[in-house]
Amino acid sequence: MTGTGTPILVVIPTYDEAGTIERVVAEVRAALPAADVLVVDDSSPDGTGDLADQLARDDPAVHVLHRAGKQGLGAAYRAGFGWGLEREYEVLAQLDADGSHPPEYLPELVSPLTGEPPPAAASGAVGLVLGSRWVPGGAVVDWPRHREMLSRGGSTYARLALGTQVCDVTSGYRAYRRGTLEEVGLDDVRSRGYCFQIDMLRRVLAAGYSVVEVPIRFVERSQGESKMSVPIVAEALWRVTRWGAESRLRSADSAGTGLSMARWLLVAFLVVPIVEIAVIIQVGQLIGVWPTVLLLVVESALGAWLVRREGRRAWASLRAVFDDGRSPDVALTDAALVLVGGTLLLTPGFVTDVVGFACILPVTRPLVRALVVRAVARRATRSGRVRLVQSRRVDPPS
Ligand SMILES: Nc1nc2c(ncn2[C@@H]2O[C@H](COP(=O)(O)OP(=O)(O)OP(=O)(O)O)[C@@H](O)[C@H]2O)c(=O)[nH]1
Ligand SMILES: [Mg+2]
After folding, report:
1. Is there a single domain that holds both residue 67 and residue 28?
2. Which of 40, 88, 159, 355 has the least CB density, counted as fewest CB within 10 Å?
3. Ligand 1 neighbourhood includes 17 CB (under 6 angstroms)
4. Ligand 1 proximity of 127 Cβ (cutoff 6 Å)
């Protein structure tokens, strides 16, 4: 370890990053000369591990952890943090090796964590600092639109599911306090891909720590291949949905409302179709079978036309929001309501049509949106999952 003050370790996971690893390590050493660097390499076929070994030979502050074969980002971080916790590091930072996370932000990331450690673990102390693309001042450079939409959409979904106000939940540019990692416990973190980041964030918040978001300029990798894949996205989607459902069931239990979530699902899947059939029979008796069938067909056709029109509008406003860099929350909620409303309208039935029209018509949609947002906020606040997150605005480097 070099330098004085709080001992800091910067963990860099690598898999086939031979084109950038030397530059990134050099930039980390320049940005934070007192910190040590640990490269965690999963036997990269392109020789990244050998390059890292050479860097370690030239600089005693650089260390390398070699692992047998590609085992995923989550496992690499667990091993890297474990290595650091076995030694005397007090702050453990992490960044990607592909150049997406400019190391010049490292001083800002670690500074909220380098003071005296908090006396007790929780007590609202800052436990995690995130380099954030989605707070004011943050930005992405040269990112294809589909990647931005995936990342923003994923962040918004995870925020809603977990009931957190943190903006960039998937950010892989971070710094933790030693105590936070020890309290959270790494051994039972099962997430393998980039949902490891979401998993750690929710554990840090659940332990009672605050999270600080520092705006960064995220730069698209210029060399090497992305390790993002369909199974990695699917894992994140599945785990985030499960965590959201579990915490809602738990909060329903602790609020004394029993299995209210299960009850709602029961209503949706069993009671609604039964009511729907009863209404169709009633209408059929009133106006005759064929007029009822005709009415259902006309309603579905009208629904299909509306879905097409409102779907296009929702897509256009989503694109505009992403282009302007505004918060996508309203546009995403609207798009989700159009999707839900469209599905209900295309399903034959009168009750579903009423709800479907309410979701999809521009005059009624704001009301439904307000009700949904209020219901989600109420539940999240009641269960104590919404925590105030400190967010700082720092001008991006010129
Ligand atoms: N040790 C190790 N590192 C990995 C593994 N998968 C990815 N990495 C590294 O983790 C970091 C993030 O991976 P990326 O492929 O850049 O993933 P990403 O940043 O979500 O995706 P892009 O935006 O497309 O770059 C990079 O430094 C990778 O080399 C793995 O299985 N093992
Ligand atoms: Mg990357």
Report:
1. yes
2. 88
3. yes
4. no
